């Protein structure tokens, strides 16, 4: 049976990092060939870190084109996290070395400003191979950013919680204060800045 989502002319797009209190929203766009060898391709959250890294390398080797893009914490604060995510998605599509005929986006809305057809697919990272591939590249890229932050600020535990609002992250925020990379528009960060007299 023909799978309409195995169209080598369309790109899959996904984002990672809307929930964390710190850092960029990271997106990726991927155009896969009609035939590819990516066993176990699925939503990045369902894969181990080791498998994500293996698949990311294979995706980059096999893709017709791929691009990772982002919207900064400052853009998240200025635009709100949804609009920053959509902006980063558009950047990823525009950064592709091959112009896709259309775009599949994980979720329920398409970025504004695209110059090709776009279809939003809820849970697309589970059903559309190109979106699954994009979710993996975006996740690997954002995790690498969190590792860099961990090396700069090891006492925050970014290697463990990846910037998400965990008990350990809240404790570090309260104890050490907010970093320049924290999202000022997020309530837990605002609370810490208010305690420091900085908000």
Number of helices: 8
The CATH architecture of the largest domain: 2-Layer Sandwich
Uncertain spans = none
Helices and strands, in order, run as EEHEHHEEHHHHH
Give the tally of β-strands.
5
CATH topology of the largest domain: Nucleotidyltransferase, domain 5
User: In angstroms, what is the radius of gyration?
Assistant: 17 Å
Layout of strands and helices, then pairs:
Blueprint: E1 10-16, E2 25-31, H1 49-62, E3 65-71, H2 73-79, H3 81-94, E4 102-106, E5 118-121, H4 124-127, H5 129-152, H6 158-161, H7 167-176, H8 187-195
Parallel strand pairs: 1-4, 4-5
Antiparallel strand pairs: 1-2, 2-3
Keywords:
43% helix; single chain; Nucleotidyltransferase, domain 5; globular
Write a compact overview of the structure shown.
The protein has 199 residues and is an alpha/beta fold. Helices cover 43% and strands 15% of the residues.
Description:
The protein has 199 residues and is of the alpha/beta class. It folds into 2 domains: 10-151, Nucleotidyltransferase, domain 5 (2-Layer Sandwich), CATH 3.30.420.10; 154-195, no CATH class. 43% of the residues lie in helices and 15% in strands. It is built from 8 helices and 5 strands; from the N terminus they run ββαβααββααααα. It has helices spanning 49-62, 73-79, 81-94, 124-127, 129-152, 158-161, 167-176, 187-195, and strands at residues 10-16, 25-31, 65-71, 102-106, 118-121. The radius of gyration is 17 Å and the shape is globular. The chain starts with 9 loop residues before the first strand and ends with a helix.
């Amino acid at each position: 049976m023909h799978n309409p989502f195995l169209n080598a002319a369309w790109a899959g797009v996904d984002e990672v990092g809307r929930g964390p209190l710190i850092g960029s929203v990271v997106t990726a766009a991927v155009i896969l060939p009609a035939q590819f060898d990516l066993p176990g391709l699925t939503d990045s959250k369902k894969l181990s870190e080791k498998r994500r890294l293996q698949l990311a390398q294979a995706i980059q080797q096999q893709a017709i084109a791929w691009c990772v893009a982002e919207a900064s914490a400052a853009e998240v604060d200025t635009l709100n996290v949804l609009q920053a995510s959509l902006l980063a998605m558009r950047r990823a599509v525009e950064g592709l070395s091959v112009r896709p005929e259309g775009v599949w986006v994980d979720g329920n809305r398409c970025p504004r400003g695209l110059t090709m057809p776009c279809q939003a697919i809820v849970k697309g990272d589970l059903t559309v191979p190109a979106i699954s591939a994009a979710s993996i590249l975006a996740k690997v890229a954002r995790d690498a950013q969190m590792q860099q932050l961990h090396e700069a600020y090891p006492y925050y535990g970014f290697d463990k919680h990846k910037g998400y609002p965990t008990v350990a992250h809240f404790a570090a925020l309260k104890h050490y204060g907010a970093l320049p990379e924290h999202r000022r528009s997020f309530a837990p960060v605002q609370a810490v800045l208010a305690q420091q007299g900085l908000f």
